[in-house]
Amino acid sequence: MEKTLEMRVEELERMLFLTKNVLSFDEASTFLNLSKSYLYKLTSGNLIPHYKLQGKMLYFEKSELEAWLRQNPVKTKT
Questions:
Q1: CATH code matching the domain that covers 21-69, chosen among 3.30.2170, 1.20.1260, 1.10.8, 3.90.105
Q2: What's the start-to-end Cα distance of the chain, in Å?
Q3: DSSP for the chain?
């Protein structure tokens, strides 16, 4: 029963995560499926849109991350 409760909590956390517009550094890492070290490299090189709250905490707007993911589409052969 403990595992079932834990699984339900994880599922609820994922559902809540989908409704957020602004993501923390850890949430953005999970959303993009990138390691934290690689995401930090992208932010330090200004290669990904992000915000710094008072020069410390990194935040990301979900819609900007989605646009960033779609910036280099591969053309299909048709």
A1: 3.90.105
A2: 52
A3: -HHHHHHHHHHHHHHHHHH-SEEEHHHHHHHHT--HHHHHHHHHTT-S--EEETTTEEEEEHHHHHHHHTSSPPPPP-
Residue type at 33 in one-letter notation: N
pLDDT digits (tens, 9 = 90+) for 12-29: 777 776 788 999 999 999
Sign of CA dihedral 59, 32, 73, 44: positive
